[in-house]
Design goal:
Blueprint (H helix, E strand, L loop, with lengths): L12 H12 L6 E8 L13 E2 L3 H10 L4 H8 L12 H10 L6 E4 L5 E2 L6 E6 H31 L4 E4 L9 H12 L3 E2 L2 H6 L10 H9 L3 H12 L5 E3 L5 H18 L6 E4 L4 H14 L6 E4 L5 H14 L7 H7 E5 L1 H4 L9 E10 L2 E4 L16 E7 L5 E8 L10 E4 L7 E4 L7 E3 L2 E5 L2 E2 L6 H13 L15 E4 L1 H13 L5
Parallel strand pairs: 6-7, 6-11, 8-9, 9-10, 10-11, 15-21
Antiparallel strand pairs: 1-5, 1-12, 2-4, 3-5, 3-19, 12-13, 14-15, 14-18, 16-17, 19-20
Length: 512
């Protein structure tokens, strides 16, 4: 039996309260449109993101496909009372939920998971009966916000590593079972493998890991020392021997003992995998360890770095290696090519920016056969949603780099060529003109992803989602990809969409 916290009651109380109100006023089956977007890139303090990586969509679709209000859910709702002891939810509403409390009437279009995305442009468009579209809000935000946040962080880590393998090690520091979602997002966003066994198998990837300091401590306590622990590990995993070398002293004990065991392995016909450094000045220790390994004839074994890594730490480590390695007779680029990065706490928690400000806003009602736009006015202009039924397009320049994501009315076709006026989404009077738009360099981003209670098309594989990210990054200006103070990527409105937004705001002004 599904726990209430994992089923349709995985929502906020006010979603259910609003749904009953809609039911009482006969609005519950009126079709409505909600858009999901995020308002700003993560800002980690000393460094900032200039793009996002969309993740969580397939997880959301899986949940939507399987879930509906159960008898147990309805009984729990029936037991809820208000301040005076009166029941909050009436029988007629609960009977409607028993019959119609599922997502079979929801239609969703979305930007495919794994693609590079930007603030304010709708990533998901939800259309369906108002009550169920409202109830969907909390779970949708939960699935998409966290995974997009972690996928974005993982992409930055991968980019900082300049092609080095990234291992996700964050399970022990993540948000309980939410760590599984974080691991999945990290693997989409840039981590090559994870130590999380269950999620790795679900995604068809091999889980990765080495050993802990505790294993070495056990053998030391038994009088067999660090080298005894290394020999035991090598005997157990002769073709996968990667040793953690900093339990005692990295350079005077750990690496020399590892080299001795590696020699024994090679004499037995096996090749060692490498060493792991988990404390201290990782750049300096990597250089000195590489020098020792090179001199011993193990210049091709890997070096895994871990301990509080993130994109900025990796960037600084590589800069230090390039500056210092030659002093010790080590080729810096060759050393960098041997590095693998174990990234844990700072990735799974998105340290420095703990939550994505994703929002789910009502933008249209269906009335007499057409969509009627709706808008919310805020004193903070960036919080004003883009109204109406719409599409999002990506425009590429002559270098085939993405130059803008453009939000257009649903009936607009941007693949017709000619000039295109692009307006800032909330700063009036700020615009630019693309005089000639090559139709082959304008891409519609949304595809149908959910209809009739099930996924549209086949679920994307992990490899497909990763390839989408890589393709988009390849077509993203290097300035936007910078780790610190990235260049601004433009999200714009067409003339028609800007006029619609401005007209609706004007109508809501006092005295209009």
């Amino acid at each position: 039996m599904t726990r209430p916290s994992a089923g349709m009651l995985f929502t906020d109380q006010y979603q259910l309260s609003m749904a009953q109100l809609y039911f009482k006023y006969g609005l519950h089956e009126r079709r409505a449109q909600f858009d999901y977007s995020f308002r700003s890139y993560p800002d980690y303090g000393r460094h900032q993101a200039g793009y996002g990586v969309f993740a969580g969509l397939e997880s959301l679709i899986d949940w939507m496909t399987d879930v509906r209000f159960t008898a147990e859910d309805l009984e729990l709702m029936r037991s809820q009372t208000g301040a005076t002891g009166k029941r909050l939810f009436d029988d007629d509403f609960l009977e409607w939920l028993d019959a119609e409390g599922h997502f079979g009437g929801i239609e969703m279009r979305a930007i495919p998971e794994g693609r590079v995305v930007h603030p304010l442009a709708p990533l998901v468009i939800v259309q369906g009966p108002l009550a169920m579209a409202q109830i969907l809000e909390t779970s949708l935000l939960n699935h998409l916000n966290y995974q997009t946040l972690i996928a974005t962080k993982a992409s930055r880590v991968h980019e900082a590593g300049r092609g080095g393998m990234v291992l996700e090690f964050g399970m022990r520091r993540g948000p309980a079972e939410g760590t599984n979602a974080g691991t999945r997002a990290a693997l989409i966003g840039g981590a090559d493998f994870s130590s999380n066994v269950g999620v790795s198998h679900e995604l068809g990837l091999a889980p990765k890991g080495t050993h802990a300091h505790s294993m070495v401590q056990v053998f030391m306590a038994l009088g067999m020392g660090e080298i005894g622990a290394f020999r035991a590990y090598a005997e157990t995993y002769p073709d996968d021997c990667l040793l953690l070398v900093d339990t005692i002293d990295t350079l005077s004990s750990g690496v020399p003992n590892a080299i001795e065991v590696f020699r024994e392995l090679r004499q037995q016909g096996h090749e060692p995998r490498g060493i792991r450094l988990d404390s201290g000045d990782l750049a300096y220790l990597a250089i000195r360890s590489a020098h020792l390994l090179d001199d011993a004839g193990f210049g091709d074994v890997g070096i895994v770095l871990s301990s509080n890594l993130d994109e900025l730490a990796i960037w600084q480590i590589l800069a230090q290696i390039r500056e210092e390695a030659a002093r010790y007779g080590v080729d810096p680029e060759r050393l960098i090519s041997r590095l693998t990065y174990g990234v844990g706490t700072r990735l799974i928690t998105s340290q420095g920016h703990a939550a994505l400000d994703g929002v789910y806003k009502l933008v249209a009602f269906h009335d007499e056969g057409e969509w009627v736009p709706a808008i919310k006015v805020s004193e903070s202009p960036e919080k004003i949603p883009i109204p109406g039924d719409k599409r999002v397009w990506r425009v590429y320049d002559q270098r085939h780099n993405a130059t803008a994501d453009v939000v257009a009315m649903a009936g607009e076709d941007l693949q017709t060529g000619g000039p295109l006026v692009l307006h800032h989404p909330y700063r009036n009077g700020v615009h630019r003109v693309l005089e000639q738009v090559d139709v082959e360099r304008v891409e519609p981003l949304h595809i149908p992803v959910f209809s009739g209670g099930r996924r549209v098309g086949e679920a994307a594989t992990i490899d497909e989602m990763r390839q989408r990210r890589l393709d988009d990054l390849e077509r993203l200006d290097p300035g936007v990809r910078r780790l610190v103070n990235p260049h601004i990527y433009h999200v714009s409105l067409t003339d028609q969409m800007k006029r619609l937004q401005s007209d609706l705001i004007d109508r809501l002004q006092p005295g209009a």
